[in-house]
Write a structure and sequence with these properties.
Order of helices and strands: HEHEHHHEHHHEHHEHHH
Protein name: GDSL lipase/esterase protein
Distance between the termini: 19 Å
Shape: globular
Enzyme class: hydrolase
Number of helices: 13
EC number: 3.1.1.3
Keywords: Hydrolase
Organism: Dioscorea alata
Length: 351
């Protein structure tokens, strides 16, 4: 990006923040779909082992209590919602908070361990992406009953939609399922996921969505759990996993361009989290971090979900200098770093 472009983006961000400081949310609502990167407690209400509603999860969040977020504190989506001018977060759709007027500013359907493939979600009893879409239709009916068809339509069309999927499809399905791994090459598997992605975006468009932000895959081979499980003893990022992530990211960007050509009024942005996160992992000290190989929780090499608990030995006392909270998920500090990147990348969605 040229210096002129950077200055233009900076000016637009400052203008946005002025509106926010004056109490004006930049969009009427935020609707969230996805996996554990976005889940704020939906899995608390499922018969799933993939949960984070116990300590030390949430120890640095509001009131220092676990909420179901796979983090010590706020998610990147939480910071994004704050940046947009909201003073509360979209509630987990299955929670008791997701009622009445609480739904008017949006809601969150994300479920840890879900994926673009429904088969990934079934493995872990998560809410599949297709089911999340069904819940969204149900949500639309509730909002329409509250505010009327015209006002509801304005909310649905003006809302910002966020989606994060794909990591579970690879880490918790493709790489550990020998039949799947033999049946599909990485290129074919990426196409399989993108078929689901395309169908989801088109269905969401039919339901009124016009501003959609989708996260790319992170550098999968640098996740502490991936290094432990697939690194063959080497204490460094797994190249083949990162190559798969880059291949998918290239394909999803091309797919997004095709979808926006098909729908001229659709704003669809693929947020690049691969590059900033990889840079942070390779050069943590340049951004105020010191540990990128091991996570804060437990030994930092394998613990996530149930293995990351208050009895896990070795958990750090201060997570602010760690890139990862558990062996898969970023710390609040990293989420803040990523959300700042998302803000500049997502200008087109809210302008």
């Amino acid at each position: 990006m040229s210096m002129l472009c950077k200055l233009v983006v900076l000016a637009m961000v400052i203008a946005m923040l002025v509106d926010v400081s004056q109490g004006q949310a930049l969009v009427p609502a935020v609707i969230i779909f996805g996996d554990s990167v976005m889940d704020v407690g939906n899995n608390n209400h499922l018969l799933s082992l993939v949960k984070a509603n116990f300590p030390p999860y949430g120890r640095d969040f509001t009131h220092h209590n676990p909420t179901g977020r796979f983090c010590n504190g706020k998610l990147a989506s939480d910071f994004t919602v704050e940046n947009l001018g909201f003073d509360s977060y979209p509630p987990a759709y299955l929670s008791k908070e997701a009622i009445g007027s609480h739904l008017l500013n949006g809601t969150n359907f994300a479920s840890a361990a879900s994926g673009y493939l429904d088969s990934t979600s079934k493995l872990y009893s998560a809410i599949s992406l297709s089911q999340q879409l069904k819940y969204y239709k149900e949500y639309q009916e509730k909002v329409t009953k509250m505010v009327g068809k015209k006002n509801a339509s304005d909310i649905f069309t003006g809302a910002l939609y966020l989606l994060s999927e794909g990591s579970s499809d690879y880490i918790q399905n493709y790489y550990i399922n020998p039949l799947l791994y033999k049946l599909f090459t990485p290129d074919q598997f990426a196409d399989l996921l993108l078929h689901s992605f395309t169908s989801f975006i088109q269905d969401l468009y039919k339901l009124g969505a016009r501003r959609i932000g989708v996260t790319s895959l992170p550098p999968l081979g640098c996740l502490p759990a991936a290094v432990t499980l697939f690194g063959e003893g080497a204490n460094q990022c797994v190249k083949r996993l990162n190559n798969d992530a880059m291949l998918f990211n290239k394909k999803i960007n091309n797919t997004a361009k095709s979808l926006t050509k098909k729908h001229s009024d659709l704003k669809l942005v693929i947020f690049d989290i691969y590059s900033p996160l990889l840079d942070l992992i390779k050069h943590p000290e340049q951004n105020g971090f010191f540990e990128a190989r091991k996570a804060c929780c437990g030994t930092g090499t394998i613990e996530t979900s149930l293995l990351c608990n208050e009895h896990a030995l070795g958990t750090c006392t201060n997570a602010t200098s760690y890139v990862f909270w558990d062996s898969v998920h970023p710390t609040e500090a990293t989420n803040k770093f990523l959300s700042d990147n998302l803000l500049s990348q997502g200008i087109d969605l809210i302008s």
